[in-house]
Amino acid sequence: MTEIKKTPDGIEIPPPGPDDVLYEKKEGFAVVTMNRPTVLNAMNKNILRLLGRALDTAEADDDVRAVVLTGAGRAFTAGGDLYASMYPDDDPAPSGMDVQLRIWSFPKPVIAAVRGHAVGQGCELAGVCDFTIAAEDARFGEIQIRHGFPPPVLITPFLVGLKRAKEILMLGDQFGAEEAREIGLVNRVVPTESLIEEAETMARKLASLPQTTVRLNKMLVNRAYELAGFQEALAYRDDESLEAVASGTRDDATAKERLDRLTQEGWGAFKRKRDVMHESNEG
Fold it and tell me: Degrees (nearest 5) of the Cα angle 63, 197, 97?
């Protein structure tokens, strides 16, 4: 019998399974759904592995001309799984960087349909998709700094510009869907109940257009950013001076205390719609 793992606050952690990512083929496009709603679709090795397989399936199918990426339940994804170590897994899996770069260079357009939390890696995953449609209740943020982590995928400066990128990455605040649209992280904000309908409407339109030109235009836009240093920026750990600083972030006493508190409070705090990583008395 499989042992049921629980967070310190009593939330059951679903063991890795084949349904952690769902794939549904529709007419002209596919819907890929991260499916761990109990833990707000927190990303672990199994999620990343299955996302890679879903992209393989979509790429190999000529009838699939676009992909909608979303999350089951009340969140897109709350980022990296705090409790992934409870289920050790030695099977190979792509990294978060691998999956996001796969979406960046994917030959078919990918639409993120975001409801609820899209924070940490979830914010970056939504950002690297070709289009991002947000529900009115969506919440975004690069919250890693609160626990001493650098951004895994440095997409934000290319999306929002210098000043806002520093604000997002250096303060770690969360912000809503309308603000995300205003700063360029989101294309459209729609009523929560019509999120998937709006994303699928966009996917159908993309599927109806001349596919060679759709692919070319994505490549042309990407090329402009790559010539501006996009790939080099993402590979910041290859810079020895930056890696030396990045490798020391885990030793920060404030970061360690915050991470310990977050781990102890668990997913229940998110479910109570609290931001457990922020304290109102902080200046």
Answer: 65
